Amino acid sequence: MGEESSGERERAELEPRPSPWTEKDEAGGTPFDRDRPIPTMGQRDGVARGVLTSVGRFFAMLGAYLRGEYRTFPRYSLVAFLLVIFYVLNPLDLVPDVIPILGVIDDVAVLGLCLRLIKVDLDRFRKWREGSVSVLK
Fold first, then answer.
1. Alpha-carbon gap, residue 116 to 30, rounded angstroms
2. Helix pair angle (102-117, 44-66), 10° resolution
3. H runs (alpha helix) in the chain
4. What is the CA radius of gyration of the chain?
5. What is the pLDDT of residue 90?
6. Mean pLDDT in each 10-residue stretch from start to end of the chain (137 residues)?
7. What is the pLDDT of residues 84-116, one digit of tens each?
8. Rounded to a whole number, what is the largest CA-CA distance in the chain?
9. 81 near 58, Cβ under 8 Å?
10. Which of 33, 49, 70, 109 could be bridged to 29 by S-S, CB 3.0 to 4.6 A?
11. How far apart (Å, rounded) are the C-alpha atoms in residues 70 and 61?
12. In 10 A of CB 84, how many CB atoms?
């Protein structure tokens, strides 16, 4: 009775999945929205803290996946983050790191773009984690 027919299963597999490039985040925007405000000088501490929080949340998500606790870990997030790590550690990137200030700015920009692209996944993990923690209490 609870079994799906093969036709229903095939239709479900063929339905388009949401793209990480167009999926909405908590604020209702996509990673490439042009109307997002640019942080001002007073907000930079919040931006740095947000980046560190996002990086930490990514590693927490990866750890939960490796332990078998979180099974909806998107592969494109892992690939994107690994490519950014490779780009940042590689001395031969778009702007070489030996050029003062500019060499680091491009690395930070690429990291920021990556975090914006996987923000939806990080928010999903945070909600899952909050839900699983509240169940354990």
1. 8
2. 60
3. 6-14, 44-66, 75-89, 102-117, 119-136
4. 19
5. 84
6. 58 58 60 56 62 87 90 88 88 80 85 88 90 57
7. 989 888 877 788 878 888 888 888 888 888 988
8. 67
9. yes
10. 33
11. 7
12. 19
Whole-angstrom distance, CA of residue 110 vs CA of residue 112: 5
Q: Token pair for residue 28? A: 């209702």
Residue type, 48: A
Q: Are 133 and 127 in contact (CB under 8 A)?
A: no
Count of all residues that appear for the chain in the document: 137
DSSP 8-class letter at 21: T
Distance CA 84, CA 102 (A): 17
83-20-54-43 Cα dihedral, nearest 10 degrees: 110
Which token pair is 85?
A: 């790590």
Output the six-digit token pair for 56: 């930490």
